[in-house]
TrEMBL record:
Species annotation: Pontibacter ruber
Protein name: AAA family ATPase
Top-level taxon: Bacteria
Length: 270
């Protein structure tokens, strides 16, 4: 089974930029690969087929392959059966908290579709016969806030995040991309394509959103470190190539017996 390493970081922190730099350095002979690696032919392997699934089916670029759509739907169904508590939390979040976003737009449909794509990606990777380490630039840890709905204080929210991580599938390792909130907001403002939930927000509002996202991610990262999930902290202000090389070195390391022991306790399968 694939060993999944998730890149985690607030929107605009630089995950995609570093991820693309890592993609450019990848070779088929490596013991790792990226989950969105460009493919040339349909028979390019498991990751290539995932590329088709998410780029052509889920994002609707030109046509819909009924077989792959059925595979994606079945993957969602298996995930729901295995992680019903997590799904309940996500639905409660949509019902109680997502009626209006920070810019007062109702994005429940978009957020539901995005969550479904993440679930399908994670489930298919976990079930794939691939024995390589697979780096993904977005996963369920990064969107841990999508399952929060009970808490009203910061301390309650940290506890809710810990409980949520206990009922969802976790990656085998994490790369945490960080920068300060002001720099993060500046990068969001410079984006060529502004995400719906950031549209029309000013700098101060973007900083506030980023601080909140970082607080939640920090709570998740602290708990994952307690659980002994291997972790690499990366400062996105460092040169992109330098960060890419550090991450490649991290994900290229062989899995140790201790890694297997910890991940067995977390109910992850190889």
């Amino acid at each position: 089974m694939a060993r999944i390493v998730e890149m985690v970081g607030s929107p605009g922190v630089g995950k995609s930029t570093i991820f693309k730099a890592i993609q450019a350095k990848s070779k088929s002979s490596f013991n790792w690969e990226t989950a969105l690696e460009p493919m040339q032919q349909p028979e390019a392997g498991v990751i290539g087929k995932l590329k088709i699934l998410f780029e052509l089916v889920m994002y609707g670029k030109g046509y819909v392959d009924a077989v792959k759509l059925k595979q994606a739907k079945e993957a969602s169904d298996r995930f729901v059966a295995q992680y019903s508590e997590y799904i309940d939390a996500c639905w409660n979040n949509l019902y109680h908290r997502q009626r209006s976003s920070n810019n007062r737009l109702d994005l429940r449909f978009e957020k539901t579709a995005f969550l479904n794509r993440m679930i399908q990606k994670v489930q298919l990777l976990r079930e794939s016969p691939n024995n390589k380490t697979v780096l993904i630039d977005m996963g369920l840890v990064n969107i841990v806030e999508r399952g929060l709905y009970k808490s009203t204080t910061a301390s309650e929210e940290r506890l809710e995040i810990r409980r949520l991580l206990d009922v969802m599938p976790l990656p085998d390792a994490v790369v945490y991309i960080q920068t300060d909130a002001a720099e993060n907001a500046r990068r969001l403002l410079m984006r060529r394509e502004v995400r719906d939930y950031h549209r029309s927000l000013n700098t101060e509002e973007l900083i506030q959103c980023t601080v909140k996202w970082q607080e939640r991610l920090n709570a998740a990262i602290d708990y994952l470190e307690e659980k002994k999930v291997p972790m690499l902290h990366v400062d996105s202000k460092n040169p992109i190539d330098e960060n890419a090389d550090r991450i490649i070195d991290f994900i290229s390391k062989p899995v140790t017996p201790d890694d297997l022991k910890y991940n067995k306790q977390l109910k992850l399968v190889y």
